[in-house]
Amino acid sequence: MTYPPNAPAASAAQGTTAAPARPVPAVPAQATRAGHSPAAAPPPASPGAWAEGRELLRRAATTEPGRLRILGAVLALLVVAFGAVTAYEVADRAAYADDVAGRSQPLSADAADIYRSLADADATAASGFLAGPQESEQVRKRYADDIATASRLLVKAAASTDAGGDSAREIAVLNEHLPRYTGLIERARAANRQGLPLGGAYLRYANLTMSRQLLPAAERLYAEETERLHRDDDEARAWPVLSLALGLLALAVLVGVQRRTYLRTNRVFNRGLLAASASCLVALLWLLAGHGLARAGLNDAREHGQKSLQVLNEARISSLKARANENLAVVARGAVLTEDGKNDKYEADYGAGVDALDGALDTAEGLADDAEGRGPLAEAAARTGEWRERHAKARELDDAGDFTRAMEKIIGSKGSTGESFDQVDAALGRALAHEQAEFTRAAEGGRDALTGLPLGAAVLGVFAAGCAVTGVNRRLSEYR
Amino acid sequence: MPDGVDTTNGTPGVPGGTATPPAAAPRGVARLRGWGGVAAMAVACALTASLALFALPRAGEPAGPAGPGPGVGRGLQIRAESAETCENPEASLTPSTADGPAVARIKNRGKLIVGVDQSSYNWGFRTPPTVVRQQDGSVKEVPGELRGFDIDLAKAIAKSLLGSEDAVIFRTIPTNQRITALESGKVDLVVRTMTINCKRIQQVAFSTAYFQAGQQVLAPKSSTVTGYDSSLSGKRVCTAEGSTAYEALEAKSFGAVYKDVGDGTKDDPDLLTVPNQLDCLARLQMGEVDAVLTDNALAAGQAAQDPAVELKGKPFTTEYYGVAAKLGEDDLVRRVNQVLVEYRQGPWQRAYQKWLAADLPGIPGPPAPLYK
DSSP state, B195? Predict the structure, then answer.
């Protein structure tokens, strides 16, 4: 509040007692505030006007009707301010809550989907490569769908991002490298069809582009969008401190005025002031309950929805990376080693991916709050274990020189690591859908708790101000 | 200061004024190129050597009892060890057909297990799987098989040992596991473009050399690059990380650009230095590098996959490929050498014509065997 308590009071008091002979409008009174600062040179008229206004107020305060007018004006102003500030603050929070449920969370989910589509495209391309010319229609379509999804969502994300922002930069990186990636994949396919080992080099180059450029950019975009979601969420959950303070102050002043009236006149109730107090109280309680409910809803969405979604997305990306590396390990077959030169890079990366998957599944298990959420997680964990076993078996076969059966164990349709991976992915997809529904329900519940509150607060404020003025006027009329 | 000593001793080995001065050499050398280069190098050598003579004893003194004299002496000794100069590492055991424990083990098993590569074109590579429509209309998938110069040699060894060239189990093994696979007995032999060198003969037993290779430049046919010479100046040259080719460029680059920003770190872009030599061909086709420096045998494999590139100039190093066995399995090594004696008389030439002649022409025959 930037209004000095006495300035509007003066103008309001002047408004009620207004005699045309006294030219003390509100504007000079405010102008004097600027002149009040020691540094500024006071305009010539100001000291006179300021002093005059003060004098007027002082004189008004010496008589009971004058004091009553001042009190009435202060009360009306406080109550209207309470209503207006509440309406403003709650509308602000409602808008943020609406953003959380309807805009930033879907954007964050889209970013996660871009990330997932890209990782899935990489894993699928490597599987298709291993199958060579026998690459199934299904695998080809899955890859094409992944690229199409990523492209479509990138356009969508770009449309709802400010140019020049961090998200826009990541989207630019993604748009720049995606065509390059698909170009490398097509080269890999072409060389592979001709039976040239060069195809493997291109596939690894494509994977390098994916894991060095595309996936980190997608990860940053996801982090950026999730950060925005958290910001909106924090804004929506921030307590409307000013509204609450004003509401309490208005109530306190109302009670004070009524007590003063009682002490002076022995009249217990003043209907106007009582009605004003009641509507203030209703507005305050509504504010507390509405915001409390909205907060609870958003808390629920964050704790049980968003956190789970984040962990599940991590799990899914880890499983996709592990799958891509598993395929590449067969393609490269020791051609690329870890930094220390002791292990196969892709084999090591596969292990790291599956470990990360297990870790994320554990965390998700801890966050899941119902059987419906835990079911798919247990399934995913079990399938991951199976995946590990099958992978070890495939490795063993490959090491024993049984390439045909090793390949069957990796890209075959039954009993293969590919099957396990698909099962893990499907289970994670179910878990994600469930948590997404949980999130949307809780966030929308939170948003809906604020419905009508801004309008209600404004109406109650105006009504309470009217009641207060009526109540004070009733007392004033006794002096005529 | 000991670094200075090493650098100076290394410099005379790099002739020519255009060589990039080693990082530790005095700054002034970098400005003096062309005619002044050689002289500047000589001055730099003398300067650094004299500095070393003064500095080394001083550095040695606080270390304890070692006096100035022994300090210098010890340094030279270490250098001699690290250079690992052994004479003719490609000299192997004399051929013999006598059975020993290793050969007996293989004969009992009935199969020879050989560690090979699957991604070196024309040496050891896997053909893509194919589909055959059978008479009943169903489709049968036929997996790809391993082929190449190394594979043919392995089959010839199997045929000689066990009577059938199909009595062989191929295990594709990574580069880093060639030695451990032998030591752990996972494979009997490794036939995988394995270079015989002084360090490796301490770890595995090699047969006589079956191929002579050398580092050579590969570039597009239309390129102005003519070989490992000054035509590389300003060109982007791709090598495999930690390879002999990379070391050669480090010693003498002819002004070529061959280092990635962030080499050896997590942010290594893998553009000029790549994990595997074949990656260089992908970079070359994408126009991201101008030339590739690698072993000519492998470079021939690259050229075979792209008709627009060719080997340039002449190989400037000499390396021999050998069949490796576990250290101590002398009977097996002698037996393989016996196979090689026969293999050199015809089969070698046929395999060369089949796999290598098109891209690595002009090799009259296998290297002559050298025995201990």
Answer: B
Q: Please name each of the domains of chain B with its CATH number.
A: 2-83 (no CATH), 101-210+323-356 (3.40.190.10), 215-312 (3.40.190.10)
- The minimal CB distance from A200 to the residues B119, B174, B285 is found for B119
d(CA A458, CA B47): 89
Q: Which of B184, B278, B280, B292 to mutate to test the interface with A (most CBs of A within 10 A)?
A: B278
Whether the Cβ atoms of residue A238 and residue A93 lie closer than 8 Å to each other: yes
Check CB contact under 8 Å for B285 and A208. no
Please report where in the chains the tokens 């690229």 appear, as a residue. Answer: A147
- Cα A265–chain centre separation: 55
Indicate the DSSP class of residue B61: G
Q: Rounded CA gap, A375 and A427, in Å?
A: 9
User: What residues contact residue B229 under an 8 Å CB cut-off, 6+ apart?
Assistant: B254, B313
CB-CB under 8 Å, A192 with B118: no
**Cβ of A137 under 8 Å from any chain B Cβ?**
no
Cβ atoms of A365 and A244 within 8 Å: the answer is no
ipTM over 0.90: no
**pLDDT at site A375:** 92
pLDDT in tens, B206-240: 999 999 999 999 999 999 999 999 999 999 999 98
B-proximal residues of A, 169-228, CB under 8 Å: 187, 191-193, 195-198, 200-202, 204-205, 208, 212
Which residue's structure tokens are 């907060």? A295
CB contacts under 8 A, B 150-179 vs A, are: 169-177
Minimal-distance CA residue of chain B relative to A204: B279
Q: Provide φ and ψ at B219, rounded to 5°.
A: -155, 165
Measuring CA to CA, which residue among A304, A307, A279, A254 is closest to residue A472? A254
d(CA B167, CA B154): 10
- Most B-contacting residue of A198, A204, A330, A408 (CB-CB within 10 A), to test interface: A198
Best B178, B305, B306 residue to mutate vs chain A (most A CBs within 10 Å):
B305
> Smallest CA–CA separation between A158 and chain B, in Å?
27
Given an 8 Å threshold on Cβ–Cβ distance, is B275 in contact with A345?
yes
- Cα separation, A448 vs A444, whole angstroms: 6
Q: Which residues of B touch A410 (CB under 8 A)?
A: none
CB contact under 8 A, A335 and B171: no
* A216 φψ region: left (φ > 0), alpha (ψ -120 to 50), beta (else): alpha
Token representation of residue A148:
């199409």
Q: Token pair of A283, please? A: 């507005």
Cα separation, B90 vs B210, in Å, equals: 10
Q: Is A286 helix (H, G, I), strand (E, B) or coil?
A: helix
Closest-CA distance, B39 to chain A, in angstroms, reads 40
pTM of structure: 0.75
Please, what is the end-to-end C-alpha distance for chain B in angstroms? 41
CB contact under 8 A, A334 and B144: no
Confidence of residue A336 (pLDDT cuts 50, 70, 90): confident
Name residue, tokens 């290598």.
B356
Whole-number Å distance between alpha carbons of A347 and A396: 13
What is the per-residue pLDDT across A7-48, written as a single tens digit (0 to 9) for each? 444 444 444 444 444 444 444 444 444 444 444 444 555 567
Q: How far out from the chain centre does Cα A108 lie?
A: 9
